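Issue 218. Parser rejects a valid record. Input:
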Amino acid sequence: MSSASDTNNETPQETGNRQRQSLQQSVTEAMGRYFSDLDGQATHDLYAIVMAEVEPPLLRAVMDYNRQNQSRAAETLGLNRGTLRKKLKQYDLL
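Output the parser choked on:
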């Protein structure tokens, strides 16, 4: 069975770039919908709102990927292990 990158004749780097672009596009589209839904109303603390939506699934996915090993998860994320623990506690993921 061939992978999508084989089918498209992409190198692994090209596949990675496409995936990265896909995440950027998803965020761009989600933010466009968010602002459209506001219909001109003011919003506040948007950064905190977005981070509260994005961080928990990111942390869960990285912890699962690293089999709940906080040191490896912190390294994967490029965070200090203490910072990771603080974020896990913040979102009740510990």
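Fixed in the parser; the record now loads. Residues 62 and 76 are 7 Å apart (CA to CA).
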